[in-house]
Amino acid sequence: xxxxxxxxxxxxxxxxxxxxxxxxxxxxxxxxxxxxxxxxxxxxxxxxxxxxxxxxxxxxxxxxxxxxxxxxxxxxxxxxxxxxxxxxxxxxxxxxxxxxxxxxxxxxxxxxxxxxxxxxxxxxxxxxxxxxxxxxxxxxxxx
Length: 143
What we know:
Layout: H1 5-19, H2 28-35, H3 39-51, E1 55-58, E2 64-67, H4 76-84, H5 109-124, H6 128-133
Antiparallel strand pairs: 1-2
Helix pairs in contact: 1-2, 1-3, 1-4
């Protein structure tokens, strides 16, 4: 499994909003500057995060974006699933039920299911608040 640029930048955007959670709506221009990501690219990411109800937006002079929930209520899994669409290690696991004609006889599918379960459990265990709390410490996100 490989996290795309969209997934990586989505997480950085959400962490930035978590860092400024109590400051109200934050402009994409400010996030782009702080994260060194183009504003145009962030504009392409926003719809994915908005559809997953992770962001609130406000238009106009004081407009921008903010987290729709507290940083302690948003997991890395939430962000990456929103951006990536799927975190399944193989494409046949993207559908439920599995549409692969060989899934009942597949000897490797249990391996990929196990990998998926470990990844999901790991990512569910890390919130944006955890990331902020551990930013100044040397923290090991291992399982």
